[in-house]
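Document type: protein sequence-to-structure record

Subject area: structural biology

Format: plain text, a pair of labelled lines:
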Amino acid sequence: MENPFLETDIPVADLKKLGLMKNGKPDLSKEDMDALLAGHRTDLISLHDIHGDGIHIQKMDAKLSLQRDGNGHMSVQLHPIYRDIKKHPMLLDVEADQLEQGTLTHVQKTYQATDGKKKTWIIEYDPETREFISSDPEKVRVPAKINGEQLSDLQKEHYRNGSVVELSDGTRLQRRASSRSGVTSNRTALLYSLVLDGGISYLLMRGLRNLFGSKTVQKDPYTEGYQRALLDMQRAQQITHAPNPKQENEQQQTYGKGNSR
Protein backbone atom coordinates (compact mmCIF):
# COMPACT_ATOMS: atom_id res chain seq x y z
CA MET A 1 0.00 0.00 0.00
CA GLU A 2 1.39 3.40 -0.98
CA ASN A 3 1.73 5.85 1.90
CA PRO A 4 0.89 9.57 1.62
CA PHE A 5 4.34 10.40 3.04
CA LEU A 6 7.88 9.20 2.42
CA GLU A 7 10.56 8.85 5.07
CA THR A 8 12.43 11.70 3.33
CA ASP A 9 9.36 13.91 3.94
CA ILE A 10 9.83 13.80 7.71
CA PRO A 11 11.14 17.18 8.94
CA VAL A 12 14.28 16.17 10.81
CA ALA A 13 14.59 19.61 12.43
CA ASP A 14 11.20 19.20 14.12
CA LEU A 15 12.13 15.78 15.50
CA LYS A 16 15.46 17.16 16.72
CA LYS A 17 13.64 19.86 18.70
CA LEU A 18 11.58 17.12 20.32
CA GLY A 19 14.67 15.06 21.17
CA LEU A 20 13.58 12.31 18.80
CA MET A 21 16.73 12.00 16.68
CA LYS A 22 19.48 9.50 17.47
CA ASN A 23 22.62 8.90 15.40
CA GLY A 24 21.09 10.89 12.57
CA LYS A 25 17.89 8.82 12.45
CA PRO A 26 14.39 9.27 13.94
CA ASP A 27 14.31 7.74 17.43
CA LEU A 28 10.88 6.17 16.97
CA SER A 29 9.59 2.61 16.98
CA LYS A 30 8.85 0.96 13.64
CA GLU A 31 5.15 1.02 14.48
CA ASP A 32 5.19 4.76 15.15
CA MET A 33 7.22 5.42 11.98
CA ASP A 34 4.73 3.38 9.97
CA ALA A 35 1.90 5.38 11.52
CA LEU A 36 3.49 8.71 10.54
CA LEU A 37 4.14 7.65 6.94
CA ALA A 38 0.58 6.30 6.65
CA GLY A 39 -0.83 9.66 7.76
CA HIS A 40 -1.95 8.38 11.17
CA ARG A 41 -1.09 9.44 14.70
CA THR A 42 1.52 7.64 16.74
CA ASP A 43 0.84 6.16 20.14
CA LEU A 44 1.63 8.38 23.12
CA ILE A 45 5.36 9.19 23.23
CA SER A 46 7.20 10.58 26.27
CA LEU A 47 9.13 13.73 25.33
CA HIS A 48 11.85 15.18 27.59
CA ASP A 49 13.61 18.56 27.84
CA ILE A 50 11.80 20.21 24.96
CA HIS A 51 13.23 23.60 23.99
CA GLY A 52 11.72 25.96 21.46
CA ASP A 53 10.42 29.51 21.07
CA GLY A 54 11.58 30.43 24.56
CA ILE A 55 9.69 27.50 26.12
CA HIS A 56 11.22 24.67 28.13
CA ILE A 57 9.13 21.63 28.97
CA GLN A 58 10.75 19.01 31.15
CA LYS A 59 8.40 16.17 30.26
CA MET A 60 5.30 15.77 28.15
CA ASP A 61 3.40 12.83 26.70
CA ALA A 62 1.96 13.42 23.24
CA LYS A 63 1.02 11.77 19.98
CA LEU A 64 2.67 12.90 16.75
CA SER A 65 1.45 13.23 13.18
CA LEU A 66 2.75 14.71 9.92
CA GLN A 67 1.13 17.61 8.13
CA ARG A 68 1.77 19.11 4.70
CA ASP A 69 0.43 22.64 4.13
CA GLY A 70 -0.75 24.14 0.85
CA ASN A 71 2.80 25.15 -0.06
CA GLY A 72 4.13 21.63 0.46
CA HIS A 73 5.87 22.49 3.73
CA MET A 74 6.07 19.54 6.12
CA SER A 75 5.77 19.79 9.89
CA VAL A 76 5.41 17.47 12.88
CA GLN A 77 2.17 18.09 14.75
CA LEU A 78 2.00 17.56 18.52
CA HIS A 79 -1.16 16.15 20.10
CA PRO A 80 -0.64 16.47 23.86
CA ILE A 81 -2.87 15.25 26.65
CA TYR A 82 -5.20 18.16 27.35
CA ARG A 83 -5.99 19.02 30.94
CA ASP A 84 -9.51 20.02 29.92
CA ILE A 85 -11.37 18.38 27.07
CA LYS A 86 -10.89 20.34 23.88
CA LYS A 87 -14.38 21.02 22.51
CA HIS A 88 -15.32 20.70 18.84
CA PRO A 89 -17.28 23.61 17.28
CA MET A 90 -19.45 21.33 15.11
CA LEU A 91 -20.69 19.10 17.92
CA LEU A 92 -23.84 19.58 19.96
CA ASP A 93 -23.30 19.29 23.71
CA VAL A 94 -25.24 16.02 23.83
CA GLU A 95 -23.11 14.57 20.99
CA ALA A 96 -19.89 15.62 22.71
CA ASP A 97 -21.05 14.06 25.98
CA GLN A 98 -21.97 10.78 24.28
CA LEU A 99 -18.60 10.60 22.51
CA GLU A 100 -16.75 11.30 25.76
CA GLN A 101 -18.77 8.66 27.61
CA GLY A 102 -18.23 6.10 24.85
CA THR A 103 -21.92 5.62 24.08
CA LEU A 104 -21.18 6.92 20.57
CA THR A 105 -18.09 5.90 18.58
CA HIS A 106 -18.32 8.74 16.05
CA VAL A 107 -20.55 11.48 14.67
CA GLN A 108 -20.95 12.35 10.99
CA LYS A 109 -21.39 16.05 10.21
CA THR A 110 -22.24 17.48 6.80
CA TYR A 111 -22.20 21.19 5.97
CA GLN A 112 -22.01 23.47 2.96
CA ALA A 113 -18.51 24.75 2.21
CA THR A 114 -17.71 28.24 0.91
CA ASP A 115 -17.59 26.90 -2.67
CA GLY A 116 -21.19 25.73 -2.33
CA LYS A 117 -20.31 22.04 -2.20
CA LYS A 118 -21.31 19.76 0.65
CA LYS A 119 -18.49 18.65 2.93
CA THR A 120 -18.55 15.79 5.44
CA TRP A 121 -16.44 15.20 8.54
CA ILE A 122 -16.28 12.13 10.75
CA ILE A 123 -15.69 13.19 14.35
CA GLU A 124 -14.50 10.86 17.11
CA TYR A 125 -13.09 11.27 20.59
CA ASP A 126 -9.62 10.22 21.71
CA PRO A 127 -9.75 9.52 25.46
CA GLU A 128 -5.94 9.34 25.62
CA THR A 129 -5.42 12.97 24.57
CA ARG A 130 -8.89 14.20 25.63
CA GLU A 131 -9.63 15.78 22.25
CA PHE A 132 -12.04 15.39 19.35
CA ILE A 133 -10.55 14.36 16.00
CA SER A 134 -12.02 15.10 12.59
CA SER A 135 -11.27 13.08 9.46
CA ASP A 136 -12.31 13.50 5.84
CA PRO A 137 -14.00 10.32 4.51
CA GLU A 138 -13.29 11.39 0.92
CA LYS A 139 -9.56 10.97 1.55
CA VAL A 140 -9.87 7.45 2.97
CA ARG A 141 -8.42 4.68 0.80
CA VAL A 142 -10.82 1.78 1.18
CA PRO A 143 -9.51 -1.79 0.66
CA ALA A 144 -11.13 -3.94 -2.02
CA LYS A 145 -10.81 -6.98 0.24
CA ILE A 146 -10.16 -7.65 3.91
CA ASN A 147 -8.90 -11.11 4.86
CA GLY A 148 -9.60 -12.16 1.28
CA GLU A 149 -13.29 -11.20 1.45
CA GLN A 150 -14.56 -8.79 -1.20
CA LEU A 151 -16.21 -5.77 0.40
CA SER A 152 -19.66 -4.78 -0.81
CA ASP A 153 -20.43 -1.15 -1.71
CA LEU A 154 -22.27 -0.83 1.61
CA GLN A 155 -19.33 -2.22 3.58
CA LYS A 156 -16.99 0.20 1.80
CA GLU A 157 -19.28 3.09 2.68
CA HIS A 158 -19.38 1.97 6.31
CA TYR A 159 -15.58 1.69 6.40
CA ARG A 160 -15.11 5.14 4.89
CA ASN A 161 -17.59 6.73 7.30
CA GLY A 162 -16.15 5.12 10.43
CA SER A 163 -18.91 2.59 11.08
CA VAL A 164 -18.23 -1.00 12.15
CA VAL A 165 -17.74 -3.41 9.23
CA GLU A 166 -18.50 -7.08 9.83
CA LEU A 167 -17.14 -9.88 7.64
CA SER A 168 -18.80 -13.26 7.07
CA ASP A 169 -16.32 -15.00 9.44
CA GLY A 170 -17.31 -12.77 12.37
CA THR A 171 -14.38 -10.38 12.01
CA ARG A 172 -15.43 -6.87 13.01
CA LEU A 173 -13.40 -3.74 12.34
CA GLN A 174 -13.74 0.02 12.47
CA ARG A 175 -11.68 2.82 11.00
CA ARG A 176 -10.38 5.06 13.80
CA ALA A 177 -8.37 8.24 13.18
CA SER A 178 -7.12 8.15 16.79
CA SER A 179 -5.62 4.67 16.38
CA ARG A 180 -1.96 4.24 15.37
CA SER A 181 -2.90 1.69 12.71
CA GLY A 182 -5.94 3.68 11.58
CA VAL A 183 -8.25 0.76 12.37
CA THR A 184 -9.43 -1.26 15.38
CA SER A 185 -10.77 -4.80 15.30
CA ASN A 186 -11.97 -7.75 17.33
CA ARG A 187 -9.00 -9.58 15.72
CA THR A 188 -5.36 -8.79 16.51
CA ALA A 189 -4.41 -8.75 12.80
CA LEU A 190 -5.99 -7.98 9.43
CA LEU A 191 -4.84 -8.34 5.84
CA TYR A 192 -5.95 -5.70 3.35
CA SER A 193 -5.97 -6.09 -0.44
CA LEU A 194 -5.99 -2.82 -2.41
CA VAL A 195 -6.22 -2.36 -6.16
CA LEU A 196 -3.46 0.02 -7.21
CA ASP A 197 -2.09 0.72 -10.70
CA GLY A 198 -3.73 -2.34 -12.20
CA GLY A 199 -2.36 -4.70 -9.54
CA ILE A 200 -3.13 -5.82 -6.03
CA SER A 201 -1.15 -4.38 -3.12
CA TYR A 202 -1.27 -6.09 0.27
CA LEU A 203 -1.11 -4.51 3.71
CA LEU A 204 -0.64 -6.76 6.72
CA MET A 205 -1.47 -5.12 10.04
CA ARG A 206 -0.60 -6.75 13.35
CA GLY A 207 -1.03 -5.74 16.98
CA LEU A 208 -4.34 -4.00 16.37
CA ARG A 209 -6.24 -2.45 19.24
CA ASN A 210 -9.61 -3.84 20.22
CA LEU A 211 -12.82 -2.22 19.02
CA PHE A 212 -13.60 0.95 20.94
CA GLY A 213 -15.67 0.16 24.03
CA SER A 214 -15.52 -3.61 23.49
CA LYS A 215 -15.81 -5.74 26.64
CA THR A 216 -14.73 -8.98 24.97
CA VAL A 217 -11.19 -10.23 24.41
CA GLN A 218 -9.84 -10.03 20.86
CA LYS A 219 -10.04 -13.22 18.81
CA ASP A 220 -7.33 -15.18 17.03
CA PRO A 221 -6.72 -13.58 13.59
CA TYR A 222 -6.07 -16.86 11.77
CA THR A 223 -9.44 -17.34 10.15
CA GLU A 224 -9.66 -19.38 6.96
CA GLY A 225 -10.00 -16.22 4.87
CA TYR A 226 -7.04 -14.54 6.57
CA GLN A 227 -4.80 -17.55 5.94
CA ARG A 228 -5.83 -17.79 2.27
CA ALA A 229 -5.14 -14.07 1.81
CA LEU A 230 -1.76 -14.53 3.52
CA LEU A 231 -0.85 -17.24 1.01
CA ASP A 232 -1.97 -14.99 -1.87
CA MET A 233 0.29 -12.22 -0.56
CA GLN A 234 3.24 -14.57 -0.24
CA ARG A 235 2.73 -15.88 -3.78
CA ALA A 236 2.52 -12.32 -5.11
CA GLN A 237 5.78 -11.44 -3.38
CA GLN A 238 7.48 -14.50 -4.88
CA ILE A 239 6.28 -13.57 -8.37
CA THR A 240 7.33 -9.96 -7.88
CA HIS A 241 10.87 -10.89 -6.84
CA ALA A 242 11.34 -13.69 -9.39
CA PRO A 243 13.92 -12.97 -12.16
CA ASN A 244 12.49 -11.53 -15.35
CA PRO A 245 12.88 -14.14 -18.15
CA LYS A 246 13.90 -11.41 -20.61
CA GLN A 247 16.19 -9.55 -18.20
CA GLU A 248 17.47 -12.08 -15.71
CA ASN A 249 19.82 -9.59 -14.08
CA GLU A 250 17.03 -7.19 -13.22
CA GLN A 251 14.40 -7.42 -10.49
CA GLN A 252 10.96 -5.90 -10.42
CA GLN A 253 10.79 -3.03 -7.99
CA THR A 254 7.17 -3.21 -6.85
CA TYR A 255 6.96 -5.07 -3.54
CA GLY A 256 3.92 -7.09 -2.59
CA LYS A 257 1.94 -6.62 -5.79
CA GLY A 258 0.37 -9.24 -8.01
CA ASN A 259 -1.73 -9.13 -11.12
CA SER A 260 -5.38 -8.14 -10.90
CA ARG A 261 -7.85 -10.97 -10.97
